[in-house]
Amino acid sequence: MHKLLIQLGLRFDDPDEERSFVRSFTLHDLGRTQAAMVLGAFVYCSFSAMDWILSPEAWAVATTLRLVVAVLVLLPATLLLTRPDARPFAEQIYLVYCVVPGCVLSVIYVFLRPSFDHGAAGLIVVILFVSTLLPLRVPSFAAFAALTWTCFALFETIATHENPGLALVNNAELGAAYALSLYGVGAREFRARRQFRTTQELHVEKERSEATLAELRAAQAQLVQAEKLAALSQLVAGVAHEINTPIGLALTTSTAFDHDLARLRRTIASGQIRRSDLTQSVERLGEGAALVFANLTRAADLVQNFKQVAVDQATEDRRRFEMRSWLVELMSTLDPLLRRKGHEVRLACPDGIVLDSYPGALAQIVSNLALNAVIHAFAEDRPGTLVIDVARLGDAQVRMVVRDDGRGIPRENLQRIFDPFFTTGRDKGSTGLGLHIVYNLVVSTLRGQIAIESEEGIGTRVTIELPVSVP
Hints:
Elements: H1 2-7, H2 15-27, H3 30-46, H4 48-54, H5 59-80, H6 90-111, H7 119-133, H8 138-156, H9 166-270, H10 275-315, E1 319-322, H11 323-340, E2 344-348, E3 354-357, H12 359-377, E4 385-393, E5 397-404, H13 411-414, H14 434-445, E6 449-455, E7 459-467
Helix pairs in contact: 3-5, 4-5, 5-6, 6-7, 6-8, 7-9, 8-9, 9-10, 9-11, 10-11, 10-12, 11-12, 12-14
EC number: 2.7.13.3
GO molecular function: kinase activity
Organism: Methylorubrum rhodesianum
């Protein structure tokens, strides 16, 4: 029997899947089912009016039987489904709810006159109610049909008919009603099983997709972090190269210091020191000290500026800062990298623009735009110019324009320029995350807007509008 049901699509191979379906099928929209059960109890009792019309002398017995069934079986079965511990047995409760009134109906027709002449019509109403309003599966409905039809046929044998041929007609009508209802119940269950299987597959696919998406987001976060560190490492390389010069000069000067001091010591030790020699040595030492001081000051300034930029990018704290002085510090860390390749940076920013924002995010934006221009905009053999222009837009906003005179962006690439992993320089080691990071930082972190315009052979212009105070 199980194999036949499986072949007909009315049972699952997996027992766990079958139990899960039965629980879902029998308890789906339980409130509606309970309302239908209450309505069924009311209709079952209300048919006592028909009993009065058919056989007034037996009306009291018929009505009593109907009320007893409603009070002892139908309503308690309905209330029982409100208990969570009874819901695993919902299908058995439905079956009792259907079989008892169906069988008792045959008992009622024994007392009525002309007995079973109208019995088929009453039982067909019960069959229609069961097949349309209660979530019974095919085996349960078949059990209901077998029990109620057997009971009907059994009591019909002890009843009298005004027309003996009505027994055959009644059973033919019931057989057709059972067959049609069984087909309807089977079709409903078949559709429910297909929908259940589809829902399960979609649920599994959703979980798989969510897991894949989580992995992709984690990988993207790692790549974004790597891109940030890569930008910071380029700043480190540029600053280290720039610091080499003043540190080297200071080291050379200190070596000359040591030579001059040794010569001065020997002169003093000989006791034959002249005023002119002493004066010349002091002047040389003074010049050397000034040169060491100037170069060490330059190195200290570079280190301090880089330290502030690095701290901002690492901590991503919010603070108030003056735009021009902050940009000067930032560009001093980018300047070695740009100047080493022959590029020029022009900064136009009025004094007094104070932002309450995230300097680390803004530093990342400017750094990525500058490095993107170095990699993509400027040809290797042609120096270019990068212009950063900052201006107020009323009291609440600031506009920053970063433009270059490089090769520009092809028109077909402009719509994808902020997409993650889109790059035309994969062969140069680009990941395609630089401008994607810029877009996310502007929109999500700084709550601003960004737009890009470009024309091949002329250059690119990136316009960023930011709130003075991040909301």
